Amino acid sequence: MDRTILEARECGYVETLTGRRRYFPDLTSGNQNVRGNAERAAINTPIQGSAADMIKLAMIRIDSLLRETSAKTKMLLQVHDELVFDLAVEEKETLVPKLLDLMQTALPLPNGVPILVEHGTGANWLAAH
């Protein structure tokens, strides 16, 4: 964490795993509260920003798969790190493994850290959990 703050002070920004930058001019503020808020955001951005990048990349790949295969299944919405689908029952066996793979491989983590994706199915969102 200290290294992230030091690098952010030197560069003025932090990056996500995809290289997306977020700038923090308040890291040099004379106001301790303002500087502290910027430091917390600088620490959080690489983690939360990379997670956001990851889910967006997965969504793009999944959308391509659903279009290319003329699937009946529809991607409905994203809630934080979760994707919700209207899954056609007849596509469940073939499509779910592909969806999981696309999500797990959307943005590989450094050092080969695996990305684990859980899934559930049900008549509604509550039942799928």
Question: Got a strand count?
Answer: 4
The biggest sheet amounts to: 2 strands, antiparallel
What Rg do the Cα atoms give? 19 Å
Mean pLDDT: 96
Number of helices: 4
Number of domains: 1
The structure class reads: alpha+beta
Distance from first to last alpha carbon: 34 Å
Instruction: Specify the helix fraction band.
Output: 40-55%
The name of the CATH architecture is 2-Layer Sandwich
The CATH class, by name, is Alpha Beta
| Poorly predicted parts | none
- As for the CATH topology, it is Alpha-Beta Plaits
Shape: elongated
Beta-strand content bin:
5-15%
Major sheet strand order: 1-2
Order of helices and strands: HEEHEEHH
Written description of the protein model:
It is a single chain. The protein is of the alpha+beta class and 129 residues long. The protein has one domain: Alpha-Beta Plaits. It is built from 4 helices and 4 strands. It has helices at 2-11, 32-68, 92-104, 125-128, and strands spanning 13-15, 21-23, 74-79, 82-86. It has a two-stranded antiparallel sheet with strand order 1-2. The chain has a two-stranded antiparallel sheet with strand order 3-4. β1 and β2 form a beta hairpin. The longest helix is centred in the middle third of the chain and has 37 residues, at 32-68. The radius of gyration is 19 Å and the shape is elongated. The mean pLDDT is 96.
Topology:
Blueprint: H1 2-11, E1 13-15, E2 21-23, H2 32-68, E3 74-79, E4 82-86, H3 92-104, H4 125-128
Antiparallel strand pairs: 1-2, 3-4
Helix pairs in contact: 2-3
Provide tags for this entry.
single chain; 129 residues; alpha+beta; Alpha-Beta Plaits; two-stranded antiparallel sheet; 13% strand
